[in-house]
Amino acid sequence: MVIPFTGSISNVSSALTRLQTTESHALANGISLAAAMEQPNNVVIQGGQRIIDNPLRFDYEAAFFASRALEGTNAIGTGLEMVTFLVIPLLFFIYGCATAVGDVRRRILKDRIVAQGAAQYVAAKVTTIVLVAVAAVVLAAGLSLGAAPVLRSLFLENDSHNFVYAVDEIGAGNPVAQIAFASAVAVLFGLVGLFVGLVARTMLIPCLAAGALLLLLPFAGPYDPRNILTAAAEGIFSYWGGFNPRTPFPVWTELGVLMLVAGLALVALAATAVWSRMSKFV
Asked: Is the pLDDT of residue 254 over 60?
C-alpha cells in the first residue's frame, strides 16, 4: 500500500506545481483560469504526441483529479489499482501454489485425499483461497480508506488548491466494483497457483516462471502481459492516483468483466479435469 500512495502524493504535488506554472504563463498572456474553464478542452494524439488546445483547463482538471484520488472513497481505488495489477497476480499465485504444495511437503496429501475424497479436499482448498483473497482485498481497501486522510494531512498540508470550478467526475470508480474486481483477480491467480501446485507438486519452478512472466517479461519487450487486466478494468478504476497503465486495446467494462469470468471458468474446467483423477496418482 505504500507504493500507490507514495505515487499519488507525488502526483498531487507535481500536478499542482504544473497548474501553477501553466496559470502564470496564461496570465502573462492575458488568459485567466475563469476564461479557460469556459472553453472546451480538446486533446488530439498525432504522431505519438499529445496536442492540447486548452492547456490551462487540462492542467486544472489533472490537478483536481489527482487531489480527489486521496479524498473519500476514491482512496480505495487509489490503493487498489496498482496493487491489483502489479502485486496481487504474483502474490496470490504463490499463495495458491503454497496451499497446494503444503500437504505434499508434510507427506499427508494421499492420506487427506483418501480420507476426505478428492472433491471435498479440493473444495476446501478453493474455499480457503476465495476467503483469503476477499479478506485480503477488503483489508487493503479499509487500510486505503483510513490511510489517505492521514497521509494527506502529513505530506500535502502545504500543497493545496481551492478548486472553485466544477469538473465532470464521470470517471470516478465505484469502490464496491473495485473491491469485487480486485478480489476476482486474487481468486483467479490463487486458483491458477493451486492448480499448478497440485500438478507440479513443487513451488520453485512454477513460482520462478510466474515471476519471470509477470515481473521480467514486461521489461524484455514492448508488451506487458499484465495489461490484459488493466484493459478488463477500464471503467472500473479511475487511475487518478498517478498509475497510468497502457492497455493493449480498448475494452468495454462489461466485456472486461466477462473476460475475467471466462478466465475463472477456464481455470475451473481445467482444474476439475485433473482434480477428478487426483486420487489415482497421489
From this structure: yes
Helix (H, G, I), strand (E, B) or coil at 143: helix
Dihedral of alpha carbons 136, 139, 141, 144, sign: negative
AA letter at 271: A
Residue with cell 481445467: 270
* CA dist., res. 180 & res. 176, Å (int): 6
Structure confidence at residue 96 (pLDDT): 92
- Cβ atoms 194, 99 nearer than 8 A: yes
C-alpha to C-alpha distance for 4 and 242, rounded to whole angstroms? 8
**Amino acid letter, residue 240:** W
User: Can you read off the three cell numbers belonging to residue 25?
Assistant: 504563463
**162-198 pLDDT per residue, tens:** 788 878 766 667 899 999 999 989 998 998 888 888 8
Check if the beta carbon of residue 233 is closer than 8 Å to that of residue 84: yes
In angstroms, rounded to a whole number, what is the distance separating the alpha carbons of residues 279 and 190?
22
Grid coordinates given for 116: 476426505
